[in-house]
Write a structure and sequence with these properties.
The protein is α/β, with parallel strands linked by helices. It has 9 helices and 9 strands. Strand 2, helix 2 and strand 3 form a beta-alpha-beta unit.
Length: 289
């Protein structure tokens, strides 16, 4: 039996992950009281059960001690039960935004006077050890729903080798500011701007005409080749360091033509090159269109 424990930050995507695992054939249980964890595993693992895949969601709650989970895990291992831990993560900035949009109270905020920020800080402290023990850490800060599904399918359906680094290639426009969470930023304004070509001005880097124009310059091909080579060197070292998220920003003036084209080219070069997650975002492609 494959047994997956889904936990992580409140607002990090645990319920979304559980729903996707359910769609993939897992028997899913959410919010099981921690004292019932060991008994649940014993019952579900009994001989002649037809259930072969189980996912269990565990949340931090004000009315139970999450420290009891560690003791339950040790007891399960001692009794020969195997399980995997999937930890759903997101940045403080994204978690705060999600809570404000949902108008929900953070489960630990009441301890600190009701502020979401303080609830998040307290939860990170509570879950610190759990995150270290996790087999998989997925950071959903910049993850589209379909990309999350691809990553979960990759781990739990196709059973492919996986590490917890998620690489996001992000195009952007400098006039709208550098992405605050970018780890690496590259400026492609050295290339001629399609904005000044009448027939290309109102197109984007997703259109073939713009792609052909931008990649028609040898400097663009050289840039992609050198950047790909550097990232293929860096990514394994980031994995070794234990990094969970790498955001590579590629910027031009408006974020519609050159940066979109080159970000797409980089994404294609990095695709299927390793066992890390990979996604692409075009932050400013629709601004003003």
């Amino acid at each position: 039996m494959r047994f997956v424990i889904v936990t992580g930050m409140s607002g990090g995507g645990k319920r979304t992950a559980l729903k996707m695992l359910e769609d993939a054939g897992f028997f899913c249980v959410d919010n099981l009281p921690i004292p019932l964890l060991e008994k649940f595993v014993e019952l579900i693992a009994m001989p002649n059960r037809e259930i072969s895949k189980v996912a269990l969601g565990l949340d931090v709650r004000t009315d139970q001690s999450f420290s009891d989970v560690g003791r339950s895990f040790e007891n399960l291992k001692r009794n020969g039960y195997q399980f995997e831990i999937l930890f759903m993560e997101a940045s403080d900035k994204v978690l705060i935004r999600r809570y404000k949009e949902s108008r929900r109270m953070h489960p630990l905020a009441s301890y600190e006077g009701g502020r979401v920020e303080d609830g998040i800080r307290r939860e990170r402290k509570v879950l610190e050890d759990m995150k270290k023990k996790a087999d998989y850490v997925i950071d959903t800060s910049n993850l589209l729903t379909r990309v999350l599904k691809e990553e979960l399918d990759r781990i739990f359906v196709r059973n492919e080798e996986y590490n917890s680094l998620m690489v996001t290639v992000m195009s952007f426009g400098f006039k709208n500011g550098i992405p605050s969470d970018a780890d690496l930023v590259f400026d492609v304004r050295f290339l001629p701007n399609p904005f000044y070509i009448d027939e290309l001005k109102h197109l984007t880097g997703e259109d073939k005409a713009v792609q052909d124009y931008v990649m028609g310059f040898p400097e663009a091909e050289q840039f992609i080749a050198k950047l790909t080579d550097m990232l293929l060197f860096l990514i394994p070292n980031y994995v070794k360091e234990g990094k969970y998220q790498l955001i590579v920003g590629i910027g031009c003036t408006g974020g519609k033509h050159r940066s979109v084209t080159l970000a797409s080219q980089l994404y294609e070069k990095l695709k299927d090159q390793g066992n890390y997650g990979l996604s692409i975002q075009h932050r400013d492609i629709r601004n003003g269109i």
